[in-house]
User: Which sequence fits this backbone?
């Protein structure tokens, strides 16, 4: 991609510029679907580039071979591209050149050498944020702890121009609030913080014979009946493409999903006051969910049998850099059965059959300042794809004068939980929206609402009522804007109406929600308009190459006119078309003491599950584990 | 318990009787809570016995030492005790002595030697089921397959008196429906049914140093920071008692749950027609969720590092028998992190800390004829208890004349999915209701609805809205009858209002639902009245020793007057009392081809999660895995 770097440099001919995104452009889907490996030449490789120069956004396509640049209109949408790592690194020093800032820090009795300021996106509320690219810095005391997040200098917000690094405004409201203590906040193993708990005999996931998967051409993962393309992406984290599963009957590889990735996040904090109201993060579009994914820790982030994949991303000058060990891939056996049955003794047949449940996990962790998001794509041998998001890391907290709840007036809202002396864990939500371009047995699919409803028998039978299945094919997008209800349930199927099974059911996959959450913000509130993808749990749109980022291409300070809600409200036809399903996974988080000083992981996810896709249980013939085929292990001498 | 057996025999003095339940009677809770091991003598051991003789139900308490019997009133509630294994074994032969039965089987061209009939509970619909103890038998062809469930002799129901084994009525509606083919239905490994799929390098859970748990006094499990009493139970499956967790700060064992178990199941099928309407099973009360739990299959039901526990149950003559390997216990590491954080590079600190997530799983599998329910109680080192139910085994199917959906009229309701030629998988639900006697830091607790609601800022701040937490303590039972709503969410806490943390929060545990389902039957429909525990996802009652079985003590043919709904509607005080929380886990099941001929496991569950119970993250100081402490493994020579 060195040619691309040169082409960009020459395009800006000596002017200062920054590259905010440089990735391979998605080739046309039809080209990819038609392309045959080892037969057809590679489609032309193009780079998709987002850059800024002299206060303007640029969207460009660069031909990787020729360096030819095509410029696209970037003025029709509000907002800015994600903030680069280099900009963040510069912004954190901006406050220290401001005399007022230094004065207020000293007035609080804090040594400037102990202060760390972090850049946070300002959101967009239609006033001060207009026209200027801003960052709001918040500062912490690093004294006596690595976990400075637990030592906020509360109420102090340094509004800074990201382009000029000029401090524009200092909000300074919390002078009376003490900085919480450092004691007990550090989470590092080698810091004195209580005795270490260790179980004498470790239980481990072992696969001494090596993995059963291969990675061809650096990105094509083949495991058991699955194959898919795996690519780190600076914005989405990882992108799974062309996931296909073999039919156990014919051995033919069948399309399941053309592409799947985390499209956007929304993390609104629920404190409306001056220093907190703007905290309504869109982490993929504002910071880069992949850019913020760092190296994984072998043995603890991923099990011993994991293999690792590096990412190559572009720095803000357009040159590549390597993010090593960003993704891990491992086979999992967690002690569960894929299926089992014991025949009852009354039939005089002693039958006891059980098969191990084995899966392949692809994992990355994005560390967005304090928070860590673990994202797993788990491929099961029975054709199911489980997507799991685990939240861990550090809860962002608010300083308070209180050290005990008995000091708090009953009517006072702390907007959170008193976690420790002078520390409130502020209530917030996490939403992760997934782009799921399902191609079930081919690209033209339909979305079916398999509604379960009470039906009355009207005295014809001893039963008064039963649950009836009523299937409705969504004709247009609005019919597929789904708000889930426990008492008015449906299954949600993506089917191929052109591919019928032997007994006449359309091949399908269903999206199965586990626990999730819906946004409680007012639909007209600016943050909610910008992250309107949280208005529904499920959406279906016709495939459109330009509709990838559900919170908008330029999420930073966006106004909300380039979102999934806006696209979907066009109400285009989606029946028997190439369609994309969007699923929003949500978490409400009311912090509790256990989240202090670092929170135990909380997980939820969803399944993409075959439904009448296979003619029978696809793991019916999977082999059971037998003793003499399992690894031969002994305890480590040092254990 | 031999003395008990003799006492019962002598009580019935020569009359024919059957023992339907014989378990140790729960000692008074206050006695148990006060009892100190190695100091106090054991409380008097009493047996709780349910028996039948001459068409009457008996409830008795038998003193294990003296054999003295106290008889309790058994006439005030409808229904019958669970059907014994011996009765089931007898009932299956009843049809064969009936000439009409033999005639209709032969008329269908089926060899009587190939026929297996299974006994199903008849439900209660207020007519034919009154006054008589009934069973409805349904028959299958066993020819050429072990999976006879896939070969129903459709529409044939043999209504039989369970007490006399007399055939009362033969419903014979399905003569025109062929018996589905045997081909492809067998699930056994050693039966020719397609090639076996085997990944060359097994991934295994290994713990060569042996477990980190001990089992004292045969039932007291101690692992990491947890201890609890584990007991197989013929009705509930397993009962967890006195679950306590140590405080990482003080080392003191703190109460979490006095007792937890699966109290009742409800599995209504959604076909209202003659041969199907009554299929509304209450598996714990009708069959015994523990009685139907058979031996587990090592390496495949449970991982290699599992240990096993036997059950001792009473046969219908009152004598004990051993159910070996009914429960397995193992430590799990599934490759996930308990918590992790990477510090962002902009702070110039390279910090990457992750800790393995380790848990202890207690598992049993109940095989209720066709279906297998895997129930896991999983204790996590961070204080969380995860209860998981996995559904697998065989979907019960209905014979049909159809071989392809193109033969089915658009308006015709099959009440299910055509799974294969002549086979419909009938739509149904599964509900499992859990009894959770929470004793959070002592027995007197309150139930708090931590409601999350939209709040408007009324122009005071740039944000229009935010999510506010509003806590309400439930004063009486009706305030704790909870129907969950995604768009009107709450957290549900059980707190000890008398035990405040250092910063003044009450010690608590919350119940966290994952995916669940609500019953769609009419509340006045007889099956729904009997299993009215499905009317809400959560209930809270004051502790009452007699209120253990949410579908009634005598669930079989019960009328629904002895249920959780009835108890809860008394609306007793529950604030700062010894309370019991009931959680109903639900699944809607619309079968699909992948469920044929045996279904891949589908799981869901719920968490009991500490909330302000610990003063900080209780696994903060858990050790990471390091290479030289993990097992030393090599691949098996035969792999």
Assistant:
């Amino acid at each position: 991609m060195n040619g691309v770097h040169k082409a960009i440099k020459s395009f800006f001919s000596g002017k200062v510029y920054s590259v905010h995104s440089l990735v391979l452009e998605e080739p046309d889907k039809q080209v990819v679907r038609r392309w045959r490996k080892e037969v057809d030449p590679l489609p032309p490789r193009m780079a998709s580039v987002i850059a800024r120069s002299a206060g303007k956004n640029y969207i460009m396509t660069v031909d990787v071979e020729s360096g030819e640049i095509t410029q696209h209109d970037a003025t029709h949408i509000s907002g800015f591209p994600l903030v680069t790592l280099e900009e963040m690194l510069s912004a954190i020093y901006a406050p220290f050149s401001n005399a007022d800032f230094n004065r207020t820090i000293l007035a609080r009795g804090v040594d400037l050498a102990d202060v760390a300021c972090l850049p946070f996106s300002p959101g967009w509320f239609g006033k001060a944020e207009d026209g200027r690219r801003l960052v709001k810095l918040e500062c912490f005391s690093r004294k006596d702890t690595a976990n400075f997040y637990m030592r906020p200098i509360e109420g102090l917000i340094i509004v800074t121009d990201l382009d000029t690094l000029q401090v524009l405004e200092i909000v300074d409201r919390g002078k009376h609030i003490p900085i919480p203590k450092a004691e007990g906040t550090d989470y590092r193993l080698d810091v004195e913080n209580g005795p270490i708990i260790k179980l004498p005999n470790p239980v481990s996931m072992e696969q001494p014979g090596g993995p059963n998967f291969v990675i061809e051409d650096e990105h094509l993962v083949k495991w058991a009946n699955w194959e898919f393309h795996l690519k780190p992406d600076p914005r989405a984290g990882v992108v799974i493409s062309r996931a296909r599963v073999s039919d156990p009957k014919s051995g033919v590889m069948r399309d399941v999903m053309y592409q799947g990735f985390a499209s956007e996040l929304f993390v609104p904090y629920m404190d409306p006051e001056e220093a907190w109201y703007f905290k309504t993060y869109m982490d993929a579009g504002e910071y880069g969910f992949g850019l913020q994914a760092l190296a994984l820790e072998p043995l603890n982030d991923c099990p011993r049998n994991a293999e690792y994949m590096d990412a190559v991303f572009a720095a803000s000058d357009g040159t590549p850099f390597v993010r090593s060990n960003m993704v891990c891939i491992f086979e999992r056996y967690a002690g569960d059965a894929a299926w089992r049955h014991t025949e009852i003794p009354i039939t005089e047949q002693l039958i006891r059959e059980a098969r191990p449940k084995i899966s392949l996990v692809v994992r990355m962790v994005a560390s967005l300042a304090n928070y860590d998001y673990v994202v797993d794509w788990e491929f099961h041998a029975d054709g199911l794809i489980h997507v799991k998001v685990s939240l861990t890391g550090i809860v962002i907290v608010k300083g308070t004068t209180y050290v005990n709840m008995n000091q708090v007036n009953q009517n006072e809202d702390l907007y959170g939980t008193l976690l420790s002396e002078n520390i409130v864990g502020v209530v917030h939500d996490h939403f992760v929206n997934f782009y799921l371009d399902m191609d079930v047995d081919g690209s033209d699919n339909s979305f079916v609402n398999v509604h379960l409803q009470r039906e009355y028998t009207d005295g014809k039978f001893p039963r008064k009522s039963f649950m009836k299945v009523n299937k409705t094919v969504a004709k247009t997008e609005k019919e597929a804007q789904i708000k889930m209800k426990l008492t008015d349930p449906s299954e949600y199927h993506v089917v191929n109406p052109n591919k019928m099974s032997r007994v006449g059911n359309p091949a399908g996959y269903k999206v199965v929600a586990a626990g999730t959450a819906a946004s409680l913000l007012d639909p007209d509130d600016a943050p909610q308009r910008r992250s309107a993808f949280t208005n529904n749990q499920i959406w279906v749109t016709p495939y459109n190459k330009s509709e990838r980022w559900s919170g908008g291409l330029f999420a930073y300070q966006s106004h909300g006119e380039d979102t999934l809600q806006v696209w979907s409200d066009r109400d285009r036809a989606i029946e028997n078309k190439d369609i994309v399903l969007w699923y929003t996974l949500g978490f409400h988080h009311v912090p509790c003491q256990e989240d202090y000083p670092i929170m135990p992981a909380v997980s939820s996810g969803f399944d993409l599950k075959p439904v009448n896709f296979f003619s029978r249980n696809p793991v019916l013939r999977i082999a059971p584990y037998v003793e003499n085929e399992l690894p031969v292990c002994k305890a480590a001498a040092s254990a």
